[in-house]
Specification:
The chain has helices at 13-22, 34-43, 55-63, 80-98, 136-144, 169-180, 198-211, 228-239, 248-255, 258-264, 273-279, 288-294, 300-310, 313-316; strands at 2-6, 26-31, 46-49, 67-70, 104-110, 151-157, 160-162, 183-186, 192-197, 216-220, 223-227, 243-246. The chain is of the alpha/beta class and 317 residues long. It has a seven-stranded parallel beta sheet with strand order 3-2-1-4-5-6-10, sandwiched between helices. The chain has a three-stranded mixed beta sheet with strand order 7-9-11. Strand 1, helix 1 (13-22) and strand 2 form a beta-alpha-beta unit. Helix 3 runs parallel beside helix 4 (80-98), helix 6 (169-180) crosses helix 13 (300-310) and helix 9 crosses helix 10 (258-264).
Length: 317
C-alpha cells in the first residue's frame, strides 16, 4: 500500500513511518520544512511539500495514495476554535480526495475526549465537556466519510506516548521535580492516566490502515490506568527526593504551567480491549514504568527539552 502521511516527522510520526515501511508499504509524508523533508527521507519515505493549511497539497497527496494517515495537528492552543477549523479543513480535504474509492483514511484524536472518572471504551461517545473536546469535531469529520465510500476510522492516542526522545507530559513532571527538589502529585494521586509505548502506537496505526472496518474508533492504549502517584513515586526514587501531595493551585506553581496541572489532575482511564480484539493486537513493548527505569527520561537533555516546551518564558528567564 502507498500511504500518504501527515505528521510523519513529529514525535510519534517517524516510528509510524518506519513501521509502515518495515511492513512493506511505501510512504509519502507531508513536509512543511527542509528539516521535515530530510527526516522523512532518512526513514525511507518520499517528502511531499506542503502544510495543513495548503489544502490543494493535501488533496494531491491523498489522490495519489492507496490510503491516508492523518497525524498532524497544530495551531494556536490559546485559540481552540482555530485548532478545530484547521483540523476539520485538512480532514475534509483529505477525505474528499478519497470519496467513493473504498480506500482507508485513518485520523488521529486523543483518549482525553472521553468522560473522566470512569473507564471509557471505544464504543462510548466522546464527552463534549472533556478537556480535549476540541478534538471531537475532527473525529466526527473523519467518521462521516465512512458513509461516503471511504474506509474511515479514528485512532485515539493515550496522552502519554512514551519511548526514546519523549518530550511530552512525563518529562515535564521530571523537569519540575529537578527544579523543586520534590516530585509532586495532586491530591491523593490515585487519578488514572493511560499510556502506550510509541512502537505499540505505530503498530495500531498500521493495523488500522490495513484492516479496521469503516467507522472504527480505536484506542491506542497499552496501559489503561497508571496512577499519577505511582509515576511521581518512581521519579522521586530515581532522583532521591521526596514525593509530595499538592493542591491543584500548588501544582500549577510547581509545574510552572496551569495547563499541565489541570491535565495531571484528571482521572481518565480508558480500555483498549475492543481495539485489541478487532485488530488482533496486544502491547509488546515496555510499559511506562519500565521506560522510566531504563530509558532516557532522566538525562539533563530530556529535562531541558521539556522546559523549552512547557515552561513559560518568564519562569525560564
Amino acid at each position: 500500500m502507498h500511504v500518504f502521511v501527515t505528521g510523519g516527522s513529529g514525535q510519534t510520526g517517524p516510528t509510524v513511518v518506519a513501521e509502515l515501511i518495515g511492513a512493506g508499504h511505501t510512504v509519502t509524508g507531508l513536509a512543511r520544512s527542509d528539516a521535515a523533508a530530510a527526516r522523512l527521507e532518512s526513514l525511507g519515505a518520499t517528502p511531499h511539500r506542503g502544510s495543513l493549511d495548503d489544502l490543494d497539497s493535501l488533496r494531491r497527496g491523498a489522490e495519489a495514495a492507496d490510503g491516508v494517515l492523518h497525524m498532524a495537528f497544530g495551531g494556536d492552543y490559546a485559540d481552540p476554535d482555530d485548532l478545530v477549523r484547521r483540523d476539520r479543513a485538512a480532514i475534509d480535504a483529505l477525505g474528499q480526495a478519497l470519496a467513493g474509492s473504498g480506500r482507508p483514511f485513518v485520523s488521529t484524536s486523543g483518549t482525553l475526549v472521553t468522560q473522566a472518572g470512569r473507564v471509557s471504551t471505544e464504543l462510548d461517545p466522546p464527552d463534549p465537556g472533556s478537556v480535549a473536546a476540541f478534538r471531537i469535531p475532527g473525529e466526527q469529520a473523519c467518521l462521516r466519510f465512512a458513509g461516503q465510500g471511504v474506509r474511515a476510522g479514528v485512532v485515539r492516542l493515550a496522552p502519554t506516548v512514551h519511548g526514546p526522545g519523549d518530550y511530552g507530559f512525563v518529562p515535564a513532571l521530571i523537569a519540575a521535580a529537578r527544579r523543586a527538589g520534590v516530585s509532586a502529585y495532586i491530591g491523593d494521586g490515585t487519578n488514572r492516566w493511560p499510556a502506550i509505548h510509541r512502537a505499540d502506537a505505530a503498530t495500531v496505526f498500521r493495523l488500522a490502515l490495513e484492516k479496521a472496518p469503516a467507522g472504527s474508533v480505536l484506542h491506542g492504549v497499552g496501559e489503561s490506568a497508571v496512577t499519577i502517584k505511582s509515576i511521581a513515586g518512581q521519579i522521586a526514587r530515581t532522583l532521591g527526593i521526596p514525593a509530595v501531595s499538592l493542591t491543584l493551585e500548588q501544582a500549577a506553581e510547581h509545574l510552572g504551567n496551569p495547563f499541565l496541572a489541570r491535565f495531571f489532575s484528571l482521572d481518565v482511564p480508558v480500555s483498549s480491549r475492543h481495539t485489541q480484539a478487532l485488530l488482533g493486537w496486544t502491547p509488546q513493548h515496555p510499559t511506562l514504568s519500565e521506560d522510566l527505569g531504563t530509558g532516557d527520561y532522566f538525562t539533563p537533555q530530556a529535562s531541558e527539552r521539556a522546559e523549552e516546551i512547557w515552561l513559560p518564558h518568564h519562569r525560564r528567564a
